[in-house]
Amino acid sequence: MEAKEIIFYLLAALTLGSGLLAVTARKIFRAAIFLLFSLIGIAGFYFWLQYEFIAAVQIVVYVGGIVVLIIFSIFLTQQAGTDLPNPPLRRIIFSALAALFGLIFSWMLISQHPFKPGAESPVAVSVANIGSMMLNVNDTGYALPFELVSILLLAAMVGCIVIAIKSRTETAN
Amino acid sequence: MEQIGLQHILFVSISLFFIGVYGFLTRRNLITMLMSVELILNSVNLNFIAFNKYLWAGRLDGVFFAIFIIAIAACEAAVAIAIIINLYRSHKSIDVESAAEMKY
């Protein structure tokens, strides 16, 4: 067994184990920390696949941004230290059955499908290549989605402030 | 032991996807449901990157899909947390069962 395989199985164990703990932990704060480790495991997979830029984006946006946002919202909305209630046994059984069925079904599909690699020669996934394709206006470029995402980010930012702001009449009551 | 290829990564990714689905179905707290959605989005991203690496190494399309999904997931998380904080202010609870005014 090579080092590459050992690292793959370690990353898979880290990602799946902490993902499973993130959806079953009784304390919401622990669930957020397990989610953090699961996202770090995914970033490790990107490093393992040698997509370093995506791994860096994953760490910056997810680990540095979204998980911190989730932890802050836990502090704002949850009484610290209270456990989440146990879901009813019936719901656990049926959800687990649904998830297991979907897992087995898609695993059968994947294991029978012959994946054929494309014949093109590999392109380096460097920041220079990604940047020049991102702002390219040819039909292989991504300038239009880039602009759309920037407008979406602006709209989401304005929307967040409008939704979460305390209105004057509400504070007067 | 066979060489690690696309199917191993796809197995990790669909396992993570259905872990997220399980969490989404069992949890009743809005923040934990949002965390399950983040797991699902991450498994999809891993899929895109693996397909780009193993099947379409000559193009960068999978990388761009992953980048745009990450950006949209950030928007979604921010808006969802704003809504959750607003809901907590009016209901003093973020359980999905407590927000039932528009149910009937």
Helix-strand category of chain A: mainly alpha
How many discrete structural domains of chain B? 1
Query: Globular, elongated, flat, extended or rod-shaped: what is the shape of chain B?
Result: elongated
The average pLDDT value of chain A, as a whole number, equals 88
Question: Which bin fits the share of residues in helices of chain A?
Answer: over 70%
Query: Which CATH architecture of the largest domain in chain A is right?
Result: Up-down Bundle
CATH class of the largest domain in chain A: Mainly Alpha
CATH superfamily of the largest domain in chain A: NADH-ubiquinone/plastoquinone oxidoreductase chain 6, subunit NuoJ
Task: State the major sheet of chain A.
Answer: none
* Radius of gyration of chain B, CA atoms, in whole angstroms: 18 Å
Give the amount of beta strand of chain A, in percent.
under 5%
Instruction: Return the string of H and E elements of chain B.
Output: HHH
Q: Can you count the helices of chain B?
A: 3
> According to CATH, what is the topology of the largest domain in chain A?
Four Helix Bundle (Hemerythrin (Met), subunit A)
DSSP E strands of chain A, number: 0
Give the CATH level 1 class of chain B: Mainly Alpha
Shape of chain A: extended
Give the distance, in angstroms, between the N- and C-terminal Cα atoms of chain B.
56 Å
Number of domains of chain A: 2
